[in-house]
Specification:
Two copies of one chain form a homodimer. Chain A has 670 residues and is of the alpha/beta class. The first copy, chain A, has four domains: 104 residues, Roll (Ubiquitin-like (UB roll)), CATH 3.10.20.30; 236 residues, Nucleotidyltransferase, domain 5; 162 residues, Nucleotidyltransferase, domain 5, CATH 3.30.420; 122 residues, no CATH class. The first copy, chain A, is built from 16 helices and 30 strands. In chain A, strand 11 and strand 12 form a beta hairpin. The longest helix of chain A has 25 residues. The first copy, chain A, is globular. The interface between A and B is large, with 47 and 47 residues.
C-alpha cells in the first residue's frame, strides 16, 4: 500500500507522514513545529512563509523531487511578491502536501516563546478568601448511633464553628471515612464559601493555595497564592497556545466560525496549557496540585468563552452577544482543570461583548470607582478597552485599534520575542537611526559580531522584526525628526539614503541588511505609518468619546494597563496622540492590572461581589453606534491632530509640521 | 520470547492469553466467561467448580498436556470431595494458570442471566417531578444592550414565570446561544428544582424523562418514566455485575477490604451496567438518553456506597458507620452516568448502617407511617430489613438471616435462574416428592424427555439446583409431612428410600439422578435444614424484638417486600415461622416496593423530602446490642417454635411434632 507523504521541517528536523492534502501549517502544528500565523489562513499576513527544498528525497530507490505541494494560486504569489519573497517561498497556510516534501522554516516565520515580563505586583489585599480551613473534632461512630460520618462532621461544624454547611463534594465524600479515621476523629476541613466541604484532611493539616490567572490572547499569566498569607508563592507564564489558530482575537473567532471543531480545539489547547501552568507553579512552590483549592480566571470575552468551551462566534459580529455576562462558579473538573478535584473556579464578570473580565479585574486592581480624581484607563490590544470616571460615574468603551500595536499588520512586524526591535532613536540632523532589540542590552550602533571579541561582548541577536513598542517609537521618532509629516507622509526632500520611495510611498530603513537575521533590511513603510495612524486615531477617538459623553475636556490621570502599556514610552505614546494630553508625571503604567485584579478576587471573596456590582454599574458606551465616533476618529488621524491639545509635549513637537508635501505623483508598483 | 499461557473455556470456546499465576476465575471474568462465585474466593461455596481437560494442546510442535494449573491445596480438595466432585475438578477461584490450559465450565457453575420478574406496579403518584419544562420567549440581543444570553433567559424566566433561577449548568451554557438562535429567541427550558437550568431546547419542544433505579445485590431494576405523564415507558433489568466479586453483600465488602482497587472495580462495574441499562431503556422507549433529565437511585447501603465509589469497608464491622446517611443530589456526570450531561441523580437516604435507601423507598411506597393499622414489613435478603409501626410510631431493624434464603449456603443451592427448583410438594403418605423448575411449566412427574414427542411437549430444563423459594418449600414440606421434626432432624424410621443417612445427618432426595442436569441427585441435606432454621430464627427474632419493643403481641398486616417475598408462598413461610402469625389474607407480597418508592420519589420531589423525614423519624433498633435478641433467636430455632403462636396454620401443622427422635448414634463421616 502507498504510504502517506513524508514531511520534514528544517531546522528542527521534525518529520512525520501526513494525509495528502494537509496544509503545511496544520502539519507543522501536529508535529509541534511552531510557525507564525497572524491572520489564521486568510491570506493577508504572509507571516507563515516557508521555503520549499527540492531534490532531496530518495523514494522507491530513485532520488526524487522533494517539493511536492499543491499549486500556487495567484493570490498567494501576489502576497509573496509583495513581501519580496524567494522563488521557492510558499505560504504554509494554503500550500498543501501532495507528496514527500522538505520544508525550511526561516527565522522570521518561527513562532518563538514569548519573553514574559509579567510579574505579580506586591499589593496589600485584605485576606478573606472564598475557601478557608477549619479544624474540628468529631464524635466517634458508636453502635446504636446512626448518623453517617458526614452527619457527624456537619454536627461538629455546627457545634464548634456555628456553621451550617449543607454540601460536601462527592470526591471529598469518597475519602471522608478514611481521612476521619486516619485523623483519629479530628480533621482539617476546607470550606468553599462556608457552604460546601471541598477537602477533608486527617488531623491538623493547614496549607491551602489558590491560583489567579489572566488569560491574554498572547500570554497566560498565573499567580499561585498562599490563601493563608496572601503571598504569591509562584508566578508562571505560558504562551497562549491558541496563537497557532490565529494571532488576534478576530482570527480565533473566525477559526471557530469556519471549523466545526474550532471551539473544541482552542478550548482543549488552553486547558492543556493551563494544566501545565498549574503543574509548573505547584512544582515551583513545592506543593501538590491538590492543595490548590480555589482559582479565579479573567480574560477578554473571547478568551473566557474559549476557556469555558463556548463557541465565541456571536462575538464576531454585532450585536456581540455574550453567552453570559455575569460571574460564575464552576467545578474545575468540569473544565478538566487539574486542581484539587473538588475545587471551584471563579470566572469574573464582563461588562459587554468586547469589554471582558480582564477589564473588570483591572478596575478592581486600580479602583478608579473609589477615587475623587477622574482617571482614564486604557488597555491596548487589538481592541483597546477604555474606562473613564471616578467614584461618581464610570464609562467604558472598546475601540477597534487593530493589531498594529501588537506588531501585526506591520511590514516587518513581529511579536515581542528575542530579536524584535523595541526601542528606536533617530538623529534629527543626520536622520541615521539606532535601535535596541529584545534580548540584547546594547543599542545597534554598539553591536559587535566579531568572533574574536570576548564572549560577553559579542552581540547575540540581530534584528528579526519590529514589535509593538518599537513601531510606536519608530513612527514617533520619524515624526519628531521630520521624516514624516503630521498627515503621515514621508518627505522626499531630505538628504538621507535612509528614506526610499516606491512611487509616492516612502519607507525608512530602520535596520540595514547586515543588522538583520535574514540579511534583508528592515523598513518602516508608508503602510506601517498608516496602520499606526488608524490605530491611534481609534484609541484617541474612543477616549474623546467618553470624555465628551462625560462632558470633560481633560483627565486627572492616565493609567496604562496591560503589557503594552508597560513597554511603550508614555512620551512617545502622547507624541503620537494615543490618548489625550495629560501631565506626563500623571501617566502611569500599571503592568498587568487584570492579573492583579484576579489575585485580589482570589484573596478576598467580597471583591468578587464588588466586581459584579462594578460590572453592572459602569456604563458601557457602544462606540460603533455613537455618531460622534467617526468625527473624532477622522479628526485624530493626524499626528498630533491638534498641536495645542498637547501643551505638555510642546518641546518635543517638530517644527516641520506644516512643511510642504511632495506633490509629484510617482508610478505605483505593479 | 515466551508467550503468556493460553486459556480456553468450553463450551463457549473463548480463548485468551493471560499472565502466569492468574486465577482461573479472574481469567474467566476478563474473557467474559461467567462462572458462579458466591463466596468470592474464600473457599467456602465451591460454586466455581470447573473441569480441567488434558492432552489437547499442540505446543512447540509437540502435543502437550493442557492441564497446567497450580497445585491443589488440601482445603481445595476437601471442599471438592465434600461436593462429590470429579477427579479433574478444580475451584476456579484458587486454581492459577501455569501454562496452556483447557477448561470445561459445567452447567451448574455457569452464572446465567437471572430471570427478572420485577415489574413496575401501576400506582397513582401525584406528579410533581424535580425537573420540569417551561417555554419562554426572549428579547433578542441588540447592539447597545449588554446582558448576556443567560441574563436574557433569566429575565424571561422572571417575567414570564416569576422564577428567579440563579444557575445554569456549564454544559447547557455551552450550547445556549446556538439553541436560542435556532429557536428564534424562543426556547423550552428544563429546570431542576426551579433553581438550575439543565437543558435548553430550541423553540417549543416538550418531552422529558426520568429514571428510577433499584440497585439490588443481585438485580438492578430500572424504570424509565415520562416525567410529564408519569407513565413507565420502559422497564429494564440487568444482573448486578458485582456478583463476580462476591454473591452476597459481605463478600463484596470483604472484596473491597482485601483489594486496594476493589471499590474502584465494583464501582466501575455497576456504572458500566447502569449505562447499558440506561441505553437499553432509552432504546426501548425510542428516546435519546439526553432526554433523561433526572434519576433516583435506591439500594442497600453497600450498593449505594459502591454506586458512589465509596469504600464500603466501614459497613463490614461494628459500628457500621455510613459515609452519609442523608439524601444527596449529584451530577450524573460525576458518577460517569450517561444521562443528559447536566442531569442530577438523587440518592435516597438510609436509616442506619444496614437499613438503606431501598428500605426507605419501600416505606415511601407502602406508607405504613400513614396508616392506622400496625404493619410489619419484611424484606428478606442476606440481611432482612424489618420495619414495624403505624402513623404514630415506626421501628426498624436489620437481622442477619444469612444467604440461605437466596439459595446460598445450601448444598444444591443456586440463584433463581432456569433449572432452579422453586416449588416443592411431598406426598404425606408415600413421601415421594415432586417439584417445578424455573423455565418449565410442568411439575417434575409430568416431564417428558422423549425426543419423538411433539416439540411443545418436550421438557426443556432438568433440575440444576434449588433456589431460595424452593428450599423454603422443601423444608416446610419436609416438616409438614413429618420427614423432619420440629427441631429440624430427619426421622430415620420412615418407609421411604428418599431419606438417606450419613451418620446422624439425614438428607432427602428431592430430584433423582435422571431429573438433573449433571446426572447426580439433588438433595436437601441436614445442613440445609439447619441453615434455613438459623435464617428464619433470625428473621423471626428480629420481628419479635420490634414487637416487644413496641409492646404488642400481634400485627394487623404483614407486608412481604422484595423479590423473595413475591416468590415464596406465604403459607409455607408462616409454617416455617419466618414471621409472626397473622391472618393469611393479611399477608401481602408487594413485589419490588423499593423500586416503586424510587419511582414515587422520581415523579414527586416532595416525596424526597418525605423520605428524608421518615428516615430520620423512624427508630432504628440495633439487634446486635439488644439483650433480648439472642433469647428470641434461640427460642425461634424450632419449627414452629410454639405451635399455639400460629393459630392461622392449625390445619397445616403436622401431627408428628412430638414424635420420638432416633436416639441411636451413627458413626460420623470422615
Amino acid at each position: 500500500m502507498e504510504q502517506n507523504p513524508l514531511v520534514i521541517f528544517m531546522p528542527s528536523g521534525r518529520r512525520a507522514r501526513v494525509a495528502t492534502g494537509t496544509p503545511l501549517l496544520d502539519a507543522a502544528r501536529e508535529m509541534g513545529v511552531e510557525i507564525e500565523s497572524i491572520c489564521g489562513g486568510k491570506l493577508t499576513c504572509g507571516k507563515c512563509r516557508v521555503l520549499v527544498e527540492h531534490g532531496r528525497f530518495e523514494k522507491h530507490g530513485i532520488l526524487s523531487d522533494g517539493g511536492h505541494l499543491s499549486a500556487e494560486s495567484s493570490e498567494e504569489r501576489q502576497l509573496l511578491d509583495r513581501k519580496k519573497s524567494e522563488a521557492n517561498a510558499r505560504l504554509s497556510c494554503v500550500a498543501c502536501v501532495t507528496d514527500d516534501v522538505l520544508i525550511e522554516v526561516p527565522p522570521e516565520s518561527r513562532a518563538q516563546k514569548q519573553i514574559i515580563r509579567k510579574h505579580a505586583t506586591d499589593r496589600v489585599i485584605e485576606l478573606d478568601p472564598a475557601v478557608r480551613q477549619v479544624y474540628v473534632e468529631l464524635e466517634s461512630a458508636e453502635l446504636g448511633e446512626h448518623r453517617g460520618d458526614w452527619g457527624r462532621l456537619q454536627a461538629a461544624l455546627k457545634e464548634q464553628w456555628n456553621l451550617d454547611v449543607p454540601h460536601i463534594d462527592i470526591n471529598t465524600l469518597r475519602d471522608l471515612q478514611k481521612n476521619i479515621r486516619k485523623g483519629k476523629w479530628a480533621v482539617t476541613v476546607s470550606l468553599w464559601h462556608d457552604r460546601e466541604v471541598i477537602e477533608v484532611r486527617p488531623a491538623y493539616d493547614e496549607g491551602i493555595y489558590g491560583l489567579a490567572v489572566d488569560i491574554g490572547s498572547t500570554t497566560v499569566a498565573g499567580y499561585l497564592c498562599n490563601l493563608q498569607t496572601g503571598e504569591v508563592v509562584a508566578t508562571e507564564s505560558v504562551m497562549n497556545p491558541q496563537i497557532t489558530y490565529g494571532e488576534d482575537l478576530m482570527s480565533r473567532v473566525s477559526y471557530a466560525m469556519m471549523h466545526d471543531d474550532g471551539t473544541k480545539k482552542m478550548h482543549g489547547a488552553i486547558i492543556k496549557s493551563l494544566n501545565r501552568l498549574i503543574a509548573d507553579a505547584a512544582r515551583q512552590a513545592e506543593i501538590s496540585v491538590s492543595q490548590i483549592v480555589d482559582a479565579v480566571f479573567v480574560g477578554n470575552t473571547t478568551m473566557i468563552h474559549l476557556l469555558l468551551g463556548i463557541d465565541p462566534s456571536e462575538l464576531g459580529g454585532a450585536p456581540f452577544a455574550l453567552a453570559n455576562r455575569d460571574s460564575m462558579d464552576i467545578k474545575a473538573r468540569d473544565l478538566k482543570l487539574k486542581l484539587n478535584p473538588a475545587a471551584y473556579v471563579h470566572i469574573m464578570p464582563a461588562e459587554a461583548g468586547h469589554v471582558g473580565a480582564d477589564n473588570v479585574a483591572a478596575l478592581l486592581a486600580e479602583e478608579p470607582y473609589q477615587q475623587d480624581e477622574t482617571i482614564l484607563m486604557v488597555d491596548v490590544g487589538t481592541n483597546a478597552e477604555i474606562t473613564l470616571g471616578n467614584q461618581a460615574w464610570m464609562l467604558s468603551a472598546s475601540s477597534p485599534t487593530g493589531p498594529a500595536f501588537e506588531g501585526a499588520q506591520i511590514a516587518y512586524g513581529m511579536r515581542a520575542a528575542p530579536g524584535a526591535i523595541e526601542r528606536v532613536r533617530i538623529d534629527p540632523t543626520t536622520f541615521e537611526g539606532k535601535f535596541r532589540v529584545i534580548g540584547e542590552e546594547k543599542w545597534s550602533q554598539e553591536w559587535n559580531f566579531a568572533t574574536d571579541a570576548p564572549l560577553d561582548e559579542q552581540t547575540q541577536h540581530r534584528a528579526a522584526g519590529i514589535c509593538g513598542s518599537g513601531i510606536i517609537e519608530a513612527v514617533a521618532e520619524l515624526f519628531r525628526v521630520g521624516i514624516i509629516t503630521g498627515d503621515g507622509r514621508f518627505r522626499d526632500d531630505l538628504p538621507t539614503d535612509r528614506v526610499t520611495f516606491d512611487g509616492p510611498r516612502g519607507s525608512y530603513v530602520l535596520a540595514t541588511a547586515e543588522q538583520t537575521t535574514n540579511g534583508e533590511p528592515i523598513l518602516v513603510t508608508q503602510d506601517d505609518v498608516r496602520n499606526i495612524q488608524l490605530g491611534k486615531a481609534a484609541l484617541y477617538a474612543g477616549c474623546k468619546l467618553l470624555m465628551n459623553r462625560a462632558g470633560i475636556t481633560s483627565v486627572d490621570r492616565v493609567v496604562l494597563a496591560g503589557a503594552f502599556g508597560s513597554y511603550i514610552d508614555p512620551q512617545y505614546a502622547m507624541l503620537l496622540g494615543l490618548f489625550p494630553d495629560c501631565e506626563l508625571s500623571c501617566v502611569n503604567a500599571v503592568g498587568n492590572a487584570a492579573g492583579d485584579g484576579a489575585r485580589i478576587a482570589l484573596l478576598n471573596h467580597h471583591k468578587r461581589d464588588e466586581a459584579q456590582r462594578v460590572a453592572h454599574w459602569i456604563t458601557y458606551v457602544e462606540t460603533a453606534v455613537d455618531p460622534s465616533f467617526q468625527d473624532e476618529f477622522v479628526g485624530a488621524i493626524h499626528i498630533p491632530h491638534k498641536t495645542d491639545e498637547f501643551p505638555h509635549l510642546k518641546g518635543l513637537l517638530p517644527d516641520v509640521e506644516s512643511a510642504e508635501l511632495p506633490t509629484r505623483r510617482r508610478r505605483r508598483r505593479r
